[in-house]
Amino acid sequence: MTKRIVVVFLATLLVGCATTRYPDGSINHDPVEGSNRGVFSFNRGLDEYVLEPVADGWAFITPNGLVVAFDRFFTNLKFPVRFLTNLGQGEIVQSGAEVGRFIVNTTIGILGFFDLATPMGIGFYEEDFGQMFGRWGIPSGAYWMVPIVGPSSPRDLVGFFFDSVFNLLPWFGTPVALVNSRAIAAPQIDLAEETALDYYVFVRDAYIQRRNAQVLNTLGDAAGSSDELYEIDRNLMYEVEIDEQTDNSE
Amino acid sequence: MNRPTIPNSARRTPICAVVVATLVWGIAGSASAAVEDESAAKEVISDTVGAVIDVLRSEDATSAKQYQIEQIVYARFDFDTISKLVLARNWKKLSASQRDDFVIEFKHHLSLTYGRTLKDYKDQKVNFTSTRSEKNKDVTVRTQIKGSGAEPILVDYRLRKASDDWRVIDVIIEGVSLIQNFRAQTQDILSDVGPEKLIEKLRQKNAEREAKSS
Prior knowledge:
The structure holds two protein chains of two kinds. By secondary structure, chain A is mainly α. Chain A contains ten helices and two strands. In chain A, strands 1-2 form a two-stranded antiparallel ribbon. Chain B is α+β, with helices and mostly antiparallel strands. In chain B, strand 2 (139-145) and strand 3 (153-162) form a beta hairpin. The model of chain B is unreliable at 1-6 (pLDDT under 50). Chains A and B meet through helix 3, helix 8 and helix 9 of A and helix 3, helix 4, strand 3, strand 4 and strand 5 of B.
């Protein structure tokens, strides 16, 4: 069984590293869509029958303030990840701030349940290993839906492994962290499921866009997406009739 | 350094002055235009968000609320541009009547979605963090909403000026552009089953959600 997983993993890495393109030259981000969709429905089943009910229960018995405090606690424990990956991207000042933040919040913030660093003006710089690799110029590779882990890519999965290694949270705490963050994300997940025309594509695109923005650090400085996205195709201005020749659907 | 050259430079002064004045005037002019644009765009967003939240907090029936939110959103979002940007090259694959249908259904879909999004945050404060003029003269207005977690949720609005009015052409939540996301979704549906099915799917989804919310 383990051997099979390793084989599948390696095969996907290979697929992921080869850039796949559509006939029209645009990049195909999801060359293994078939198996990804299979894993996606498996993950959704797991969520529906295990994670979501537990998270709902947790949210029901836990006051919202405490859920948020747990979120801060778990975030604080990821300090080594932020410290190392800020450093690895040459962000010395930011990794220094993370040290200050960790000291303040772990002590007077009582193990990180309270955030006293932010009111003191100490910043928060959410970086991880996947983002650092991206900054180093390593491409993400193909989109890959991983069992239990969720949306990922060869680069981000390796990053995820290092993130877990450097997380101060002991392994037995992981399920609690997972349940807590599922409880926090519940409104967004409900909204997405309710509004998406194709929930699988919604999640894939949201993941790819968000990771790109995180790698480029455009989440925090309004640099926004590419200007190309906002250009109305010039052909559209003149085109009135349906042009059969441009129909490249298979 | 070289004192005797003063008369020379004095001779050049009129031209220099004109050039400098033009430059300064030009830069100041364009800068103040950008500042004006940004504050106009920001006002559109704060009006829109405020109006929608007022409706959500009111005691009206759900269907009445939905209608009011639609009116607010329809007036401030540029759905023609949004539809063209979402469908991009695929816009050409739709017949004229399919395009009209798509815009109508998409409009409905977006106003439902927008109202639904803000519903979760109606008791939270919306902070306006900054504005930015984009290269193509669009303006991005950045906001933060306190969500259910420790970190606030980042919501950016991109606006474009059309006949003196600033209208929203995209909403970017946590780095995820709605246009890009819908483009990905519609692209797949269009190439798999075609425009008629896409419109049908939107129509069905809207009906489902309306039934659920009322």
